[in-house]
From TrEMBL:
Belongs to the cation transport ATPase (P-type) (TC 3.A.3) family. Type IIA subfamily. Keywords: ATP-binding, Magnesium, Membrane, Nucleotide-binding, Phosphoprotein, Translocase, Transmembrane, Transmembrane helix. This is Calcium-translocating P-type ATPase. Coiled coil: none annotated. Gene3D superfamilies: Calcium-transporting ATPase, cytoplasmic domain N (3.40.1110.10), Calcium-transporting ATPase, cytoplasmic transduction domain A (2.70.150.10), Calcium-transporting ATPase, transmembrane domain (1.20.1110.10), HAD superfamily/HAD-like (3.40.50.1000). The lineage of its organism: Bacteria, Pseudomonadati, Bacteroidota, Flavobacteriia, Flavobacteriales.
């Protein structure tokens, strides 16, 4: 029989398990029998194919075509050199991509899937991989099922099963056996791996793991979550394609022009045209961009922000609004009850955090106060085990604070029978339980004060007085939770929302949750970076306003709450979304509307979330940020970034790093392209003048190869500049190379080609040796690149600041390059291939001088264009 056809007892027996769970030995035994709870890895691209894919690039096609041409011309040396460079480039690209892939894989693995299990009578969190059939697991709203499970206990459990059934409306689950044959969609006493709980909680026995689950059977159809491409990479691919055509077009055109002007022979023209093609192609650029992104993402993970979707790195630099939760993200989430207020008495508490040593003062014997404490103690799922060596705390921080308050007031754990529960949910903002008492049953409720007061039978005068009291406390920044109760008949054994009315008010607790000290600082940095920080909280409007003020959020007095938002006509949303920065008593639905409204105003929105219902807003936001600690699995699954420390400051830091990565990519581009431009321009100039090529095609390939793997790669390690958070967000619709950067590429390309061309001609006329003149020209070009690399440390600012020496990779790269150039110039092996000759120190001096000249020219250009003409 299938598990859904069995009764709860039979299901337990069938899987030889019991309510206290399996023992550790049984788990080990079953793991060796059934294997781990894993789906087979997605079929990976075989390594040989990955290597071959390196050649699948229009730039490389052009180079390969050139090698075919040189082969036809029987210019074997050039053919072998071009092919050699293409292969070396593929090897470097393959190795770097492998490194990037490994880094990204490691990051993906940082988001762990854990499951709550009962084993040997203890409730444990285990890696989902370790689940075995027969394990007893617990699931609650926001968690994803990680195996197929026959339910044995449910409390209003609803599951979203779209991944299996395509149906996005959550399905209510139960524990009763179902007769007959049914598809998974109808097996309402089962939950399936990959589906998630949207409401309530449940307990069940694992009936299938890994590939035997329903998900395992269809896993081939599932799409991968993280893509290894970004809009920028796609744009660069597109750019490569266009560039290849442009290079081909220009080279052929110049071939024709030189033929027309100088009537040289076809073979020579072809060799020269190939020279231009080879010179102009930035073959190393795609690999450099990939590695820069991967290194950046790795760095972000070390800084507690795990990027789950690579395009987020680019979007981070464009974020204009960060909408952040309050509790736990902007505040510490270390709650302490400071006061308990009932209509006719109050208590104050001392002590901080979850210490139980604080003192209580006030009228502890007051009846309503006692009742209120009891409600907070029982209508509570937090657990506190006190012992002399080590106390253990688990549960929601608000509930822990209330438990600790009860302990301070002398209440201990009471053994009451809970008949039913309405779990806390940020949509209805209360929790209720039904418990068995001697003569009658009792409903105990705690929740947001105004929601509780609405459900109490109070005179309007009493209600007004209580509202004033808690508003006053909320305005001081306290988080307020109210308690209420009602007696029902002893036969009542179920509980739903309709029962929560005509309650008796008991009291409210005032809780402090101190702001995170680093949050105010991070908010100030965001403001400097042109980013608006908005606080979106489920808390009371006055509490939210007071905390926003403490944190330095802009215009904290301009605040709205959920009630106001409910009555707000759609057309007014964008205006309110833009002008208000404090949104209180919001529901997850408001978050979604806020994202939509801001995006309608062309804002780029980062939105944080933790609850299951936050998923749609996170998905819609340009950057969905999930909380690694208190966030539900569902929010993590849809998010772009997961914060491992739930801290607002980490988001601000991620924005900073994201901007830095983008800068580094831009730096790599504006470093690599002018070199190609300079090489191509010096050849064009030589051809037009009807003279000899200052640098041959093989020499150009040498330069491109050695400078890319040394110098350009070093830029990927460039630390984020201090000023990145002083600029406004980047407009995402602006091209990566704006007109100023395009100018810079042309300018540097021209200056460098003039220097190289001039040195070449000087050497040629002085020494009458083409080989010597070319060796000097190559070394001058390389020296120019070394100095230009230093210019590239800051794109728009001069480089004379303390960050000049902050990237050791640059200096290591220069050292390596010097060795390579010495080998190129002096080793007979290279002399044979590249037709180089030994240089005197004076010649190196000339090359260096050329580099220094370029360096100061570029710094002068920055000064004139940016500081004087203000054009950049
Ligand atoms: P955030 O700022 O991250 O949105 P929040 O904790 O302020 O989080 P909610 O969790 O939606 O927002 O809580 C809203 C209100 O519900 C709180 O102000 C409090 O009055 C009440 N509340 C919070 N937690 C509980 C709970 N466990 N049981 C009952 N009421 C709660």
């Amino acid at each position: 029989m299938a598990p859904y056809q069995l009764s709860v007892q039979d299901a337990l027996e069938h899987f030889t398990t019991r309510i206290e769970g399996l023992s550790q030995e049984e788990v080990m035994h079953r793991q060796s029998k059934y294997g781990m709870n894993e789906l087979p890895e997605k079929q990976k691209i075989p390594e040989w194919k990955k290597f071959l894919l390196q050649f699948h690039n229009p730039l490389i096609y052009v180079l390969l075509a050139s090698s075919v041409l040189t082969a036809l011309l029987q210019d074997w040396l050039d053919t072998w050199i071009i092919l050699g460079v293409v292969v070396i480039n593929a090897i470097v690209g393959y190795a770097q991509e492998g490194r990037a892939e490994k880094a990204l894989d490691a990051i993906k693995k940082m988001v762990k899937y854990e499951t709550t299990v009962v084993r040997g009578g203890l409730v444990l969190q285990v890696d989902s991989k370790e689940l075995v059939p027969g394990d007893i697991v617990l699931i609650k709203a926001g968690q994803r099922a990680t195996a197929d499970i026959r339910l044995i206990e449910t409390h209003s459990l609803k599951m979203e099963e779209a991944i299996l059934t395509g149906e996005s409306v959550p399905v209510e689950k139960h524990i009763h056996p179902i007769e007959g044959e049914h598809l998974p969609a109808e097996q309402k006493n089962m939950i399936f791996s990959g589906t998630y709980a949207t409401y309530g909680r449940g307990k069940g026995v694992v009936v299938a793991t890994g590939q035997n689950t329903q998900l395992g059977k269809i896993s081939g159809l599932l799409t991968d979550i993280a893509r290894n491409s970004t809009p920028l990479i796609q744009k660069m691919d597109d750019f490569s394609r266009k560039l290849s055509f442009a290079i081909l077009g220009v080279s052929v055109l110049f071939g024709l022009i030189t033929w027309y002007l100088h009537h040289s022979d076809i073979q020579e023209i072809l060799v020269n045209t190939i020279g231009i093609i080879v010179a102009a192609i930035p073959e190393g650029l795609p690999a450099i961009i990939t590695i820069t992104l991967a290194l950046g993402v790795q760095n972000m993970a070390q800084n507690r922000a795990i990027v789950r979707k690579l395009p987020a790195v680019e979007t981070l630099g464009s974020v204009t609004d960060i909408c952040s939760d309050k509790t736990g993200t902007l505040t510490k989430n270390e709650m302490t009850v400071m006061e308990l207020i009932s209509p006719d008495a109050n208590l104050t508490f001392t002590g901080s955090g979850y210490e139980v040593t604080g003192k209580v003062s006030g009228n502890l014997n007051n009846e309503t106060i006692q009742r209120s404490i009891r409600i907070f103690n029982l209508c509570n799922d937090a657990q506190v085990y006190l012992s002399s060596d080590e106390s253990k705390l688990s549960g929601d921080p608000t509930e822990l604070a209330l438990k600790i308050m009860a302990i301070k007031s002398g209440h201990s754990d009471e053994n009451v029978q809970r008949l039913a529960v309405i779990p806390f949910d940020s949509a209805h903002k209360y929790m209720a339980i039904l418990i068995k008492e001697q003569d009658s049953n009792l409903i105990l409720v705690k929740g947001a004060p105004e929601k509780i007061l609405d459900r109490c039978s109070l005179t309007s005068q009493d209600k007004k007085a209580l509202t004033e009291k808690f508003n006053q406390k909320a305005a001081q920044g306290y988080r307020i939770i109210a308690s209420a109760w009602k007696s029902v008949g002893s036969t009542v054994e179920t509980l739903n929302d309709n029962d929560i009315h005509e309650l008796h008010f008991a009291g409210f607790a005032c809780i402090i949750d101190p702001p995170r000290p680093e949050a105010a600082d991070a908010i100030a940095r965001c403001h400097e970076a042109g980013i608006i920080v908005k606080m979106i909280t489920g808390d009371h409007i006055e509490t939210a306003g007071a905390v926003a003020q403490k944190l330095g959020i802009k215009n904290p007095e301009n605040k709205v709450d959920g009630n106001y938002l409910e009555s707000l006509p759609d057309e007014q949303w964008p205006q309110v979304a833009l002008s208000c920065n404090v949104f209180a008593r919001t529901t997850p639905h408001h978050k979604l509307k806020l994202v939509n409204a801001l995006q309608a105003q062309n804002r780029i929105v980062a939105m944080t979330g933790d609850g299951v219902n936050d998923a749609p807003a996170l998905k819609k936001a340009n950057i969905g940020v999930a909380m690694g600690i208190k966030g539900t699995q569902v929010t993590k699954d849809v998010s772009d970034i997961v914060l491992t420390d739930d801290n607002f400051a980490t988001i601000a830091h991620a924005v900073r790093l994201g901007r830095g990565i983008f800068d580094n990519i831009r730096k790599a581009i504006i470093f690599i392209l002018p070199t190609n431009a300079a090489e191509a321009l010096s050849i064009l100039a030589a051809l037009l003048a009807g003279g000899t090529l200052p640098i041959t095609a093989p020499q150009i390939l040498w330069i491109n190869m050695v400078t890319t793997v040394t110098l350009a790669l070093a830029l990927a390690f460039e630390p984020t500049a201090d000023n990145v958070m002083k600029r406004p967000p980047r407009n995402p619709s602006k091209p990566i190379l704006d007109s100023y950067l395009a100018w810079r590429i042309l300018f540097v390309g021209t200056v460098l080609s003039v220097i190289v061309f001039a040195l070449f001609n000087y050497a040629l006329s002085t020494y009458q040796s083409i080989e010597l003149a070319r060796t000097i020209a190559v070394n001058a070009l390389v020296a120019g690149e070394v100095f230009y690399l230093l210019n590239c440390k800051h794109i728009r600012h001069n480089v004379f600041d303390k960050s000049f020496f902050n990237n050791v990779h640059i200096f290591r790269a220069i050292g390596t390059l010097v060795i390579l150039q010495l080998a190129f110039t002096y080793l007979p092996f290279f002399q044979g291939i590249f037709k180089t000759v030994p240089l005197a120190i004076y010649h190196f001096g000339l090359a260096l001088l050329g580099g220094v000249l370029l360096f100061f020219t570029v710094e002068l250009e920055k000064f004139v264009m940016i500081k004087v003409l203000r054009l950049g």
